[in-house]
Amino acid sequence: AQSVAQPEDQVNVAEGNPLTVKCTYSVSGNPYLFWYVQYPNRGLQFLLKYITGDNLVKGSYGFEAEFNKSQTSFHLKKPSALVSDSALYFCAVRDTGRSSASKIIFGSGTRLSIRP
Amino acid sequence: KAGVTQTPRYLIKTRGQQVTLSCSPISGHRSVSWYQQTPGQGLQFLFEYFSETQRNKGNFPGRFSGRQFSNSRSEMNVSTLELGDSALYLCASSLEAGGRNQPQHFGDGTRLSIL
Fold first, then answer.
1. d(CA B106, CA A34)
2. β-pairing, B10-13 with B110-114?
3. Do B108 and A43 touch (CB under 8 A)?
């Protein structure tokens, strides 16, 4: 069965410092991995995805994520945090199998708070 | 291109009533998924429709149902509302069936409050 874990409910970072939001996953085959961000009173907004190829994926707003197959992780990173990055972040996984039963599974979310 | 549109944005109902929520996907998207988001349970998958057929279903009681029309618009219905149904209901659309390696595009949700 697929699963995804975001071990930190909240991450606090000072503006200008690098940030990391952690995500680990479990799938039976190879994964498709996604990061989304949610601002208050809004839906989720796609940031980036890993399908195959280069382990370092670049996305919107200066975010990037590193796929690590041996550690089954897909951590979200940004070199220099902005106050406007404060939001709720979700990691999601879907296996690459062709079964129609394959669903996208979302993590529990990590609230990122950037202090000025 | 217009995004995913959900109506209404806010809804207040009482226990025992029923409710219908609507979702218009991005033009050209044929897959529509519904999610329930609550502070305690996080984001939970309800069901997914593609070409008017339900492709996947989450672990929700039969009071939760949905359908998709030929123009890909989707509706979700909840009957015999309970206090625990209070949540933000999100709709997401994607290009392909199951949106396997395509990202999902979310609407801003319908916030349902049960009194």
1. 14
2. parallel
3. yes
DSSP state for residue B103 in the 8-state scheme: P
Nearest to B45 among A34, A49, A103 (CB): A103
Distance from C-alpha of A105 to C-alpha of A59, rounded to nearest angstrom: 20
Give tens-digit pLDDT for A63-81: 999 999 999 999 999 999 9
Contact call for A100 and B98, based on CB within 8 A: yes
The pLDDT, as a whole number, for residue B99 is 52
What confidence score (pLDDT) does residue A66 get? 96
CA distance A16 to A100: 43
| 3-state DSSP assignment of residue B66 | strand
Residue B38 sits at the chain A interface (C-beta within 8 Å): no
Q: How far apart are CA B35 and CA A25, in angstroms?
A: 20
**Statement: residue B41 has pLDDT above 90:** no
pLDDT at residue A97 is higher than 80: no
Residue A25 makes CB contacts below 8 A (sequence gap 6+) with A2, A3, A4, A5, A31, A33, A72, A73, A74, A91, A93
Residue A49 with chain B: CB contacts under 8 Å? 101, 103
A44/B45 touch (CB, cutoff 8 Å), yes or no: no
Q: Which element (helix H / strand E) includes A16? A: none
